Amino acid sequence: MADSDIATPAVIHRADYAPPAFLIDTVALEFDLVPQRTVVRNTMRLRRNPDAVRAPRLELLGEQIEFVAATIDGKPHSAVQAHEHGLTIDDVPDAFELTIESICNPEANTTLSGLYVSSGNFFTQCEAEGFRRITYFLDRPDVMSTYTVTLRASKDEYPVLLSNGNLLEEGDLGDGRHFARWEDPFRKPSYLFALVAGKLVALEERVKTGSGKEKLLQVWVEPHDLDKTRHAMDSLIHSIQWDEKRFGLELDLDRFMIVAVSDFNMGAMENKGLNIFNTKYVLANPETATDTDFSNIEAVVGHEYFHNWTGNRVTCRDWFQLSLKEGLTVFRDQEFSADMAAGTQDDAAAAAARATKRIEDVRVLRQMQFAEDAGPMAHPVRPESFVEINNFYTMTVYEKGAEVVRMYQTLFGRDGFRKGMDLYFKRHDGHAVTCDDFRFAMADANGRDLAQYERWYSQAGTPRVKVKTAYDAAARRFTVTLAQGYGESSAAARETQQGPLLIPFAIGLIGKSGNDLPLKLEGESAAGATTRVLEFTQEQQTFTFVDVAEAPLPSLLRNFSAPVIVEYDYSADELAFLLAHDSDPFNRWEAGQRLATRELLSLASRAAEGGALSLDDSVVAAFGRVLTDASLSPSFRELALMLPSETYLAEQMAESNPAAVHTARQFVRKRLATALKTEWLKAYDSHRTPGAYEATPEAAGHRALKNLALSYLAELDDAADVVRLATAQYDAANNMTDRAAALSALLNTAAVHGDDTIAAKSLADFYQRFEKEPLVIDKWFALQATQRGSAARPTIGIVRSLMAHPAFTLKNPNRARSLIFSFCAANPAQFHAGDGSGYAFWAEQVIALDALNPQVAARLARSLELWRRFTPALREKMRAALEQVAANVKSRDVREIVEKALG
Ligand code: B3K
Ligand code: ZN
Hints:
By secondary structure, this protein is α+β, with helices and mostly antiparallel strands. It is 42% helix and 20% strand. It is built from 28 helices and 31 strands. The strands form eight sheets. It has an eight-stranded mixed β-sheet with strand order 6-5-9-3-2-12-15-14, with no helix packed on it. A hairpin with a 2-residue loop joins strand 5 and strand 6. Helix 25 (837-852) packs parallel to helix 27 (872-888). The longest helix is centred in the middle third of the chain and has 34 residues, at 395-428. Bound molecules: (3S)-3,7-diaminoheptanoic acid and zinc ion (ZN). Zinc ion (ZN) binds next to helix 4.
């Protein structure tokens, strides 16, 4: 990080966008790869941009690189000035060839941005602004060029040399080194450049795509990981097939490569033809990976592959448009996963499988994105300004962005959405464009004016829809009045709010028998579908259903048709009825969550006042019915029986009180465990999956419900049953899902009963068994960091001693996340301990990470951003920790986060 960046933290504004003064048509890069001193020679063909104002000089960006020499059209050029932000070149012609030589030090690069070394191999990460750490360049997404890349390196140490596109030639250099030359025929922005060099092996497959062309697919890993690549390869093949079938989009290169690396800042990166992945999203076999890992791998492989069209072929004009590629690609990966889960099952089973995926996605959105929207980092899907772009790869840009894309499909149907996509590619293939361009394509393809829809991109905060209904029995009319607003938004969000949104509001009406009633809106001649999407565009609007034979119960916002909060006064009985009958599986789940949330929040308030806790039998009975309803899929039951998370519940309180939430939630878990003990034991037994492990959604559903049963049983006062079941499950497990669930149950029972002898034995066994599998050792750390604590044995003590474990290192992001982030973000009751010990630990770790890896540090820094919403005692301790961090960090990344938080 250059010092002057810290001195002048420039805020970048969307409104200041100007086209680049120069364009770069071709780039020829030559690398002499040496860990401490890599020489890069970069030859570019530049010309003035006819669409830009004439600039007096050429300004290229460069960071943390050493300038050696520059020539223009083959001749040395004297008017070149190297500085800490790049290179300024005066007296340049209108079109010319520029060659620049520079040096970088990949081995010393702990930021994992630019060119770096991991386990002795070379990797790159360029998005968003890492390319400037490799060579001087117009490092911005609207400069698109064709690249030729020559790699030279020691043949023994780096036998494999990869870059984007197609391999042109390779050979020996005679001095112990060899070379490879790659060419990417597609124009691309610099953030999609990649190279990999090292000792790697690949699983290979050849497939034929729609047009009959044969393509080579490779998954590259370190040799000892080759046995964990099959699932990633299958996921890639399925992704290729799905994008052809659903969107008519074919793989455009002859070769598509995925490379796994264990040191990586995020999940994966969609570099053209050479995707680089965190090992966590590639490596899997039944012994090492859980069902969740298997489905995450499928989703991330799909996501990066889908970027080939949505992101790479059509890219972003500037980083404010990030959601253009990310929101759209998340939507595409969500649909892919839903279709994969549905498979070839019958309609009802397929719908249930799709709903399960939808529920999981909405749960993440509500817990994480709604929280972001309520705090100091609130920003629109298309932000207006930023200090550090890496801080804007957010839940809002990704997950809310995906909802904004999904709503086009909800409004226009799958066919209308497809028409919009086709027009988008017809207009913009090969270009760098904006979110507006996408909206215009959707509007024009469907003959609609979507001007109002722009507000979904420009307004921050979570919209609230208040619903009022009235039934007139004599007139057989049912009116639904919707009113929209933002409630109490954070200051950051308030600034952006201008007016009402176009909200697709899906609704159904349910009769006394539990069936959907026919729906006829006033003015219609006949009843239509039993779920209708109302187009809600005003601040307040009334919709009237006619010929309604009986007083209905409304099922609101079916399938979560818009990313909003619905406020409606359901009684507990009505929620129990919806939980039992709604034909919309999402809303069935939603009814259970509303019921549970309401009970849990009132119990949390009582717990905060030290009152006695009790839970009505009717609530227990409603959950009992779900548990024993064999007509529901096991995966749906698991989701419906999982209580809202402590984090989500604390966010719903007027003043977040994690300790009270924990007490309330544990009370309810124990009550459900005790009252339904027989049912849980029965569920445990009947959902076992004996025999060879299968990674199918059905088998995963059985394991999920069985392991949920085990976790409830771990709440019982009498630990004997669960210890017996969990120990047997641990010992007999032939897959990581069951083994990790058993270990987690043992750890939590140990905390409840204050005796960890058995848990300690299993923990030691787990470590020993998987010592050579870093991703499993991450789980070992995470399980301990998220375990329940007690006054006698707070989790912070365990976490601190694990920091000193020989296998712990701050330098590897996965390892740092497994221990530190797990504790700070996934163990709220212990992290928010009243003595502030969690916050002190957090501050130490943010400061330590800031010096190594600002991007990872900035993520951790976000753990306290909602501090103003906590109880006064916690709030003051959080502020002190934030101030300590603010006084001790240097990176622009972390400064932006803590300064906004302290605001
Ligand atoms: N596009 C990358 C994310 C890059 C993050 C840079 N800080 C992965 C993805 O969204 O597919
Ligand atoms: Zn992405």
